[in-house]
Every structure is written in structure tokens, then in C-alpha cells.
Design brief:
By secondary structure, this protein is α+β, with helices and mostly antiparallel strands. It is built from 20 helices and 18 strands.
Length: 731
């Protein structure tokens, strides 16, 4: 067995004075050591050959000061919170900024001459000039000075870049300015003035948390906040504003059924690969075949009726041809979307429905003078959708993408054709699940239209074989368009394909199915029954197929049409039940979240107070993992070794399913969050009902003395050190 393995080094800075020979030797030794370690970790692998050596070069542009003076942006300079020491003759802006902070000058704070007398008071040994960020911590430790560094985004919003964790008496704040490849440090003499405008329009004094840049009116509240925020990662925290603090359903466009949806599938030949006998004493992966695409089928489902027949293609360039044909169809559909058709005349029943309507059929809001009733229609089929408010009518726009569904896209089909998406320089967007699997990916075919590849398995997590059993025969609408009733009966039964036999393109020319022994599945170590083999032969003969290639075409075409019927039926149920089309979503959780918001019409209040969020986060428990052997001995009259003198014991294994779902079905916090001033007693807390209209989230101090441990038997400790690791437990 052969496996391609990559060994690599991290990026290393290269300067004019760098010893390239020494650097090369160091990096080479690292790769050799990684290779030797890989072979020595009981893997059984040995190096066969080196396929390539790749050298990657990147332009080095680190965060560091520069020798060129940079002006502070005007808007920041107007805060008068910054001292930018002018040092045009050297690259020591970090040093001058630190000196300006520790030894302030009343007369000329922007001149280096004001700080020359203090040059020898600090230790700058080993500090580079210009100074990179990674040396700031080094300087802090040498001088026992805490240094916080901030920077700003394009909109000049300040954010923390480096926050010191050193506990010391002296703390200073610096601003890092970056202009193209140049960087510069400045002293922040008032962080409050610097960030106050981005936090509030009020001019009164505020106390700023240096870690998250939250503002407080009193120093006492800041100290309380620091107790919760002190162990959080530095970041500029942005909370919802008072005007936008309610979360409710807003994706009304998703109730519009997408007119065009593509369903697709690939077929591959399973070319055998050379392999060696693995060592049975160690774990191994047996790679015995390579899947090479040989053909595909895709079908475009159209809301208005028949659009095009299924596209079936079989040749060695299948992935490339798939993208070419699909892009052509996508451009045609985009043209249809961009040329909306007028509404057809209403029927009498539609007129009556419109005249009698008091509420919008989309948002269910009552029509008003400033949001009048209009006729909403499908711009493609020209059909009347319903009486709609003007706001929803404007929001109900045709999609900017064409959904393309594969069943198990993430696990299989994506790997077959995704490389073909790079045929031009148009944008490719990915939503990754892991490095190898993607939830979805999109390819632009024009400036504002995309092919969006989706996985139907994310909505219907089962095999097509099992899903087919959920539909009645009369629900296979698309199968009926291309097969008569007798043939549908054959195709609805599980199909069989000799994948392990189908290992070359030449096998497509076989004029009949191979013998039953060739249907053996090596991966699952399963053979098919005589009855199943006879069924495959009946399909081959009933459809008058000439060779195995045509059998492959029928197989993939059937899978695509079955997927179309299954997912279109799923869409129908979702639209009827939730008034939402799943084709707007990437996964079931996103669909179910919107369905909940739409059906319940709930408006969930979001925190605007960061301390409330920290309060909840600090209450999170869990994340404890352990491996243990459960061991207990039953002692009762039903046991052969029953001892009546010992304690009577019965064993029962219990497990609870859907704990999260159970908890979320109970009363949950919804709105009107305020800090409570009530001095609750223990009895007050015990008297609170789990279904009260007003609830409390409490932080309590508990003491659990050893004499109560056996009585209470907590399933989890009240609190655990998250960094604690216990390797061995002795019982």
C-alpha cells in the first residue's frame, strides 16, 4: 500500500544578514526528523521516494515600528488622547513612546529632546528597533511594566491588539498605527477619550475596560466587570443596540419557493491500486481502489412544470463537462430571473381572496396606510401568490443563486468535481466543516449569480434506499415523467451495481451484466442474493440495455430522479407546515431555527449589557471527559450466588436521550433582563416556580463538606479546574 504524506516547516523570516545555509540545514533536519518519527510511531510505513520539494515564499510585513514618521489620523488626533513623538532620524518609536508614558513632559511632549535624560532608566537590551510585537512582552518582563497595545480598523474603531497579563504597578497603553508596510507606536495618554466617541455620544467621563473596551460610569462598576472579564480573550466587544435588541423572524423571502433547483449525482469506475500487505499487529488503512469519475446526471426541477430532460453524460472528462453544462444552464436561468413576467389575470376565487384579505399572507401583519395591500406574484410562472403587504412584496425577490443538490455531497461527490471550479478567476466561496469536508460551496457564474452546491443529506440524513420507503407510489412525480408504471416498480426496488468489477472504462462495453460473483462488495464484504441478481438482470433486459455503460447511465439517472422526488416532497411538506423553502438554507438547524421564529412569532431580547453575557458565560459548566469501566455486582434472589446476609442490590442501566431538547422545551429566559436588587433568601429561592412568569439567574456560593458527599452524590463536581488532567485513577 502506498500513501502520500506531506512534511512541512513553519515560515521563517529571512533578512539580508540571514545565514541561508544554516537556515536550510535547520529546516531540512526538521523534515527528516518528522519523517523518521512518522515511520517510528508503530505505523509500519517506510519511505519509498520523494515526489517533490516545494519552497513557498511570502512577503514579510510584520507588526513593528518603522524609521519613518507617520501622522496620526485626523479623527484620532482630534481626541487629544495621543502623544506621537516625532523621531524622524531613528526607528525607535517604541522606546520614545514608552518614555513619554513613564516620564511625561508638560512643555514639549512630542519632541524626543524631552526624554533624552531618561534613556538609561529602562532596560532595552536585546530589543530590536523597529520593535516587533513579539518583543514587547520581552521588554515588559525585563522592566516589570505592563504594556497594552491597541490599533484601529479602516473605520478607525479602536480594538485591543496585545493586552498585558503582567501584574505590576506600572501600566501603559500604546497605539499601533500601520500605513502600508510602515508601522508606528504612539503613547495613549487617555484611553477613555480615545474610545469614548465610538461607545457613546455623551461627553461625561467614562471608565474603560482595557481588555474589551466596554465603558462604565463609575470605577466601582468597572472593578465588578473586571472580575468577570479578566480571564477573557482581548477583543473589542460590540453588543446589540437598544433599537436592535430583539431577535425575531425576518427572512420572509425564504417563504418564496425557489423556481429552479438542480439535483445531481456522479458515477465512478473503481480502479484498483497497487498495495502491500500491512502488518496485522498494527492498525492500518487498506487502500485498494481509486474512484475515477466516468459519468453524471443532473435534472433541473422547475416550479412551473417541465423545463428540460435529465442531462446524462458518460466519458472520462465528466467533471469538466458537468461544470460547463451546469454553468450554461445557470446563465440561462439567471436571464429568466432578470426578466420578470407580469401577473396573469386573477381568477374569480383569487379576486375574492384578495378583496377579503385583511392580513399579509407572508408576515400575517394587518394592512395599514403606510404598508398597503398589493398583489404578490411569481415573476417566473406569472401565478398569483397571495395578498401581500408592500414591505414583504419588495422583499420577495428571486434568488441570486441556483441550488445544486447532491446526496452526500460533503462525503463523496464534492471530491470528484470541486477542482474543476477553478477554471476561471470568478469567486469561489466555501463553508467548511473540516479541512476535507464542506457544508457548502458556491461558484460565481456572473457578477451577481452563483451556483450553490448543497448536500441533501444535511436535511434527510439517511440512504436513498431508506428514504424511498417513506413515499407512496403516486408521490414519485418525476419518475412517472420518464418511466411507465411497470418500470417504476422495478426501479423503486433497491438497485445493484457491480462497483468492484467496474474498474475500467473498457467495462462499459460489456454487452451483459457480469456473473453474480462479480457483484461482491469488497468494502462491506457482502455478496448479493440470487434473487437480487435476478432483479438486476430483469432491469437490464426490461430496459433493452445494450451494455454495462447504459446500465450505469440508467442507474445514475434513476438515483437523480428519485432524489428529485424525495427532496421535492420534503420541500412541499416544509412549505405547507412552516411556510419556508429548505432550498434557501444550508442545513436543517438553520431551517429549524427560522421555522421556530416564524411559527412562534417570538421576539427574543438580546443582551445589550456585556456584563450580563459574561455572567451567563461564567455559569457554564461541563466539558469533563473520562474513560471508565462500570463495575457493579447484583445481589438479589434472582442471582445464582445470592447472599441474603449482604445488602440487596439490583442493577439497572439508564440513559436519557435528547437532554438539550428536553431543556429547551421548558421555560426559557425571553425578555426584560435586568439586574435584580432583591435580597433573596434561601426560602425565597426554594419558593420560586419553574414555570413562573418571572425567573432568576443566580450566582451562589456553595460549600459542600465531606460529610454530605455520600448523601448528595453530585453527578458532576460543583466546579472543576478546566486545566486539570488526571491520567490515572486507582480504585
Amino acid at each position: 500500500m502506498i500513501k502520500n504524506v506531506e512534511f512541512k516547516t513553519s515560515n521563517n523570516e529571512v533578512f539580508q544578514e540571514t545565514n541561508l545555509v544554516s537556515l536550510y540545514d535547520t529546516m531540512s533536519e526538521k523534515i527528516v526528523k518528522e519523517s523518521e518519527d512518522f515511520e517510528g510511531k508503530d505505523s509500519g510505513w517506510t519511505l519509498d521516494e520523494i515526489l517533490r520539494l516545494e519552497v513557498r515564499t511570502n512577503r514579510y510585513s510584520p507588526f513593528r515600528g518603522s524609521s519613518s514618521f507617520i501622522e496620526v489620523p485626523k479623527q484620532i488626533a482630534e481626541t487629544k488622547a495621543i502623544i506621537n513623538v516625532i523621531n524622524k532620524k531613528d526607528s525607535q518609536c517604541f522606546m520614545w513612546s514608552v518614555l513619554a508614558a513613564l516620564y511625561p513632559s508638560a512643555n514639549h511632549p512630542n519632541k524626543t529632546s524631552s526624554y533624552v535624560t531618561h534613556l538609561n532608566k529602562l532596560n532595552f537590551d536585546g530589543i530590536s528597533f523597529p520593535t516587533p510585537l513579539n518583543e514587547v512582552k520581552k521588554f515588559s518582563k525585563m522592566n516589570d511594566i505592563g504594556i497594552n497595545i491597541y490599533s484601529f480598523e479602516e473605520d478607525l474603531k479602536i480594538f485591543p491588539l496585545l493586552i498585558s497579563d503582567i501584574v505590576c504597578e506600572k501600566h501603559i497603553d500604546l497605539l499601533y498605527i500601520k500605513n502600508n508596510d510602515l508601522g508606528r507606536y504612539c503613547f495613549i495618554k487617555s484611553l477613555s477619550r480615545l474610545v469614548s466617541k465610538q461607545l457613546s455620544k455623551h461627553q461625561h467621563k467614562t471608565y474603560i475596560c482595557k481588555r474589551c473596551l466596554s465603558a462604565f460610569q463609575t470605577e466601582y462598576k468597572l472593578l465588578q466587570h473586571n472580575e468577570m472579564c479578566g480571564d477573557k480573550s482581548p477583543a473589542r466587544v460590540v453588543m446589540p443596540s437598544e433599537t436592535c435588541k430583539f431577535l425575531k423572524f425576518k427572512n420572509f423571502q425564504h417563504s418564496l419557493k425557489i423556481p429552479f433547483v438542480v439535483y445531481a449525482d456522479f458515477e465512478c469506475v473503481t480502479m484498483k491500486t497497487d498495495t502491500c500487505c500491512p502488518d496485522p499487529n498494527f492498525s492500518f488503512t487498506n487502500m485498494y481502489e481509486k474512484h475515477v469519475p466516468i459519468g453524471f446526471c443532473y435534472f433541473i426541477s422547475y416550479q412551473g412544470g417541465h423545463y428540460k430532460d435529465p442531462v446524462v453524460y458518460r466519458d472520462s472528462d465528466a467533471p469538466k463537462c458537468f461544470i460547463e453544462k451546469l454553468e450554461k444552464d445557470a446563465i440561462e436561468i439567471e436571464h429568466i430571473y432578470k426578466n420578470p413576467k407580469p401577473l396573469l389575470p386573477l381568477t374569480e376565487s383569487e379576486k375574492q381572496l384578495y378583496d377579503n384579505a385583511k392580513n399579509c399572507y407572508v408576515c400575517d401583519q394587518t394592512f395599514r396606510e403606510n404598508n398597503i395591500k398589493v398583489r404578490d406574484h411569481n415573476h417566473v410562472t406569472q401565478k398569483f401568490n397571495g395578498p401581500c403587504c408592500n414591505s414583504c412584496n419588495l422583499a420577495m425577490k428571486t434568488p441570486k443563486f441556483l441550488p445544486v443538490f447532491f446526496h452526500n455531497l460533503s462525503g463523496y461527490d464534492a471530491h470528484i468535481f470541486i477542482k474543476e471550479l477553478g477554471y476561471d478567476k470568478k469567486q469561489i466561496n466555501l463553508i467548511p466543516n473540516t479541512e476535507e469536508k464542506y457544508i457548502s460551496f458556491s461558484k460565481s457564474v456572473s457578477n451577481d449569480f452563483q451556483l450553490r452546491f448543497l448536500d441533501s443529506f444535511k436535511f434527510m440524513p439517511s440512504s436513498l434506499e431508506n428514504l424511498i420507503k417513506t413515499l407512496k407510489k403516486d408521490e414519485f412525480k418525476y419518475m412517472k415523467q420518464y418511466f411507465d408504471s411497470e418500470k417504476i416498480d422495478l426501479l423503486l426496488r433497491k438497485g445493484f451495481f457491480p462497483y468492484d468489477y467496474f474498474d475500467s472504462f473498457e467495462k462499459c462495453k460489456d454487452s451483459c451484466l457480469p456473473p453474480i460473483s462479480k457483484f461482491y462488495n469488497e468494502l462491506n464484504e457482502e455478496a448479493i442474493s440470487v434473487e437480487d441478481y435476478n432483479h438486476a438482470c430483469r432491469v437490464f433486459n426490461q430496459f433493452n440495455l445494450s451494455n454495462l455503460g447504459e446500465y450505469c447511465d440508467l442507474y445514475v439517472k434513476t438515483d437523480v430522479l428519485l432524489l428529485t422526488d424525495l427532496f421535492e416532497n420534503f420541500r412541499k411538506i416544509c412549505i405547507q407546515t412552516y411556510k419556508l423553502d429548505p432550498c434557501w438554507y444550508f442545513t436543517t438547524p438553520a431551517l429549524s431555527w427560522d421555522a421556530m421564529l416564524l411559527k412562534t412569532k417570538v421576539a427574543i431580547e438580546l443582551f445589550t449589557d456585556y456584563d450580563m453575557l459574561l455572567f451567563i458565560e461564567n455559569g457554564v459548566r461541563g466539558g469533563i471527559s473520562q474513560c471508565c469501566d462500570r463495575y457493579a455486582i447484583a445481589n438479589n434472589k434472582y442471582m445464582p450466588n445470592f447472599n441474603p446476609d449482604d445488602e440487596i442490590k439490583y442493577l439497572m442501566y439508564l440513559d436519557a436521550n435528547n437532554l438539550y431538547g428536553y431543556a429547551m422545551s421548558k421555560y426559557l429566559p425571553l425578555k426584560d433582563f435586568v439586574w435584580s436588587d432583591n435580597n433573596l433568601t434561601t426560602q425565597d429561592i426554594l419558593n420560586l416556580s419553574d414555570e413562573s412568569d418571572v425567573g432568576y439567574i443566580l450566582e451562589v456560593d456553595l460549600d459542600n463538606p465531606p460529610d454530605l458527599h455520600d448523601i448528595q452524590i453530585f453527578p458532576l463536581p460543583l466546579k472543576i479546574n478546566p486545566h486539570l488532567i488526571v491520567k490515572n485513577l486507582d480504585f
